[in-house]
Amino acid sequence: MATAAAHQAARTQAAHATSDATGTAPGQAPGTAAYQTAFDTAVAAEERIEPRDWMPDAYRATLVRQIAQHAHSEIIGMQPEANWITRAPSLRRKAILMAKVQDEAGHGLYLYSAAETLGTGRDELLDKLHSGRQKYSSIFNYPTLTWADVGAIGWLVDGAAITNQVPLCRCSYGPYARAMVRICKEESFHQRQGYELLLALSRGTEAQHAMAQDAVDRWWWPSLMMFGPPDDESSHSAQSMEWKIKRHSNDELRQRFVDICVPQAESLGLTLPDPDLVWNEERGHHDFGAIDWTEFWEVLKGNGPCNEQRITQRRQAHDEGAWVREAAATHAAKHSEAKHAEAQDSGANGKATA
Ligand code: FAQ
Hints:
Blueprint: H1 2-20, H2 32-44, H3 57-76, H4 78-82, H5 91-116, H6 122-130, H7 148-165, H8 174-202, H9 206-225, H10 237-242, H11 250-268, E1 278-280, E2 285-287, H12 293-303, H13 307-320, H14 322-353
Antiparallel strand pairs: 1-2
Helix pairs in contact: 1-2, 3-5, 5-8, 7-8, 7-9, 7-11
């Protein structure tokens, strides 16, 4: 309550400053400084910034960048796993995988909607994705070579996503934080299905165990890269943490993920492909080997194994869906015309009887 009161006071001050043009720094619009104070107070007090609140332009731009990149990752991320739907080894596995891939589409929708609350439409964001002006997560530029890759994605990629995204449930921007609550619940199911799938393979025949190990060998390092560049090369972290968009640095979350995975790998009977992975008593964390950041930056530049395939397939899916978008828009226009006519009719009737 105390924090809400502080925020309210700052807002009142901002409103007052706007009306009498006080609290204005040189070069700022009247009242901007007071709005900035209200914003800073709200962020410091752990209050949520909502779509109609004033926010700095750079805060808005950072959110659009991150949320768009996140949304794009969800929909591009459908491709590697969808590759295995027709070849899932049983009806049960197929049903689970279909549900998971559909969930990813849903996550994309929540996130594009969150970006829309910042004044950036889905068409514009998709256009930027298709023309390479916006990114999606590096992880989805690797191929899914065997059925075990579906398990490795669930365990490691969804596991990394949860580690990164649970703190985003406390992001300072309300719509993004609320979208993340539901997404994280679903990601937990995804992570469990991957773990269970890998466990079945690991405890299966020798060939199945080898397939599971091979998948983990290939997905481990790219999963660590998902958390982004090391802190000293992360251009956005410091500002994003100050704004409480991000709550932890890239390296902190990466370390948390490694510490979570080590005992899970032991339970799975699989080995993480890092000879330098060792418990450090002093730090209370696992030390781990050097990440190949050259590979990460190359993937970001478009030179990963599947970059071209992923974006080509995405553009094709978008073009093939044009008729659905047109039909939906026509239906919505007819529906709104009918509603409008109905409202006019009842207005006219109301006047006639008055
Ligand atoms: N891939 O300054 P930072 C999922 C870029 S969802 C590509 O550290 P920031 C679910 C970054 O954009 C996975 N680019 O950046 C699923 C920036 O470039 P820019 C996606 C990356 O934003 C599972 C530059 O490097 N999750 O997996 C990556 O502070 C299975 C400098 O980096 C999210 O998007 C990367 N990995 O921190 C779906 C979570 N890392 O924009 C289907 C939300 C960094 O200046 C199947 N996002 N870059 O040109 C975040 O938490 C943050 O944006 C980070 C990056 C942590 C990813």
